[in-house]
TrEMBL record:
GO MF annotations, alphabetized: transcription coactivator activity
Gene Ontology biological-process entries: regulation of transcription by RNA polymerase II
Keywords carried by this UniProt record: Activator, Nucleus, Transcription, Transcription regulation
GO cellular component annotations of the record: core mediator complex; mediator complex
Organism: Manihot esculenta
Family the entry assigns: Belongs to the Mediator complex subunit 6 family.
Region of interest: Disordered: 1-22, 193-246
The protein's name: Uncharacterized protein
Domain of life: Eukaryota
Biased segments, Pro residues type: 197-206
Predominant localisation class: nucleus
Localization per record: Nucleus
Length: 246
């Protein structure tokens, strides 16, 4: 009895292929019985990959297998169009990288997905956009966490921490200042001030404008006038009749 196309070695029908672009990064495949029977090399690695749920049974490689041609023969794959798998990186026997791509012509191919076989376990590599999204999300999380910690530190200025995140009570009714935090804030403000442009000079006063004199300035002028007068002898000022008699 002939084995139907795309069937497993046991004669069972294959698993329904996943549509292109399906995210299967959360699963992996490993067949320990096959690994104990056959070696992992560039000649048999594709047969092992074809057992996994990542394999598309409608690819051009499967057509070559049905014709008893090696499924990774580039001279035959370049003559076909459609979905195909290519072995892009090889580090026998530990690492194999297989790229899924769409071939439109012998020279034009469009990469679709990438799979890697690490020590016998097959994984789907995440797409670059998902990697960027995960890295950016992680960076934003740590930045938000840093701002939260900085805000909590600023709220605790004036207190001394006695426990983990618990502000201590002010001693003797006086607020204790954390001078390290004060110096750090002063350094930040000074660096920001150096980056700002200098303030423009004030506009000149119009002709004939007289500055108003405040009460403090008037008191200062009166005091200067009193101090500028020569001291007066109190005895002479009282006159001869009011001098003290001894």
């Amino acid at each position: 009895m002939a084995t139907p196309p795309g069937a497993n070695f046991d004669g069972n029908p294959p698993v329904a292929p996943q549509p292109p672009g399906t995210d299967m990064t959360g699963i992996c495949f490993r067949d320990q019985l096959w690994l104990n029977t056959y070696p992992l090399d560039r000649n048999l690695i594709f047969d092992y990959f074809a057992l996994s749920p990542f394999y598309d049974w409608t690819c051009n490689n499967e057509q070559l297998r049905l014709q008893s041609i090696h499924p990774l023969d580039i001279s035959q794959l370049s003559k076909m169009t459609g979905i195909e798998y290519m072995l892009s990186e090889v580090m026998e026997p530990n690492l194999f990288v297989i790229r899924k791509q769409k071939r439109d012509s012998p020279e034009k191919v469009t990469p679709m997905l990438t799979y890697y076989i690490l020590d016998g376990s097959i994984y789907q590599a995440p797409q670059l956009c998902n990697v960027f999204a995960a890295r950016i999300g992680r960076a934003l999380y740590y930045i938000s966490k840093a701002f939260t910690a900085a805000a909590s530190k600023l709220e605790k200025i004036g207190y001394v921490d006695e426990g983990e995140g618990v502000p201590s009570e002010p001693k003797a009714g006086k607020d204790l200042i954390d001078f390290k935090e004060v110096k750090r804030i002063d350094h930040i403000l000074a660096s920001l001030q150096r980056k700002l442009p200098p303030a423009p000079p004030p506009p000149p006063f119009p002709d004939g404008y007289v500055l108003p004199t405040t009460e403090a300035e008037k008191g200062a002028e009166t005091q200067q006038g009193v101090e500028s007068q020569p001291p007066v002898d109190p005895i002479i000022d009282q006159g001869p009749a009011k001098r003290m008699k001894f």
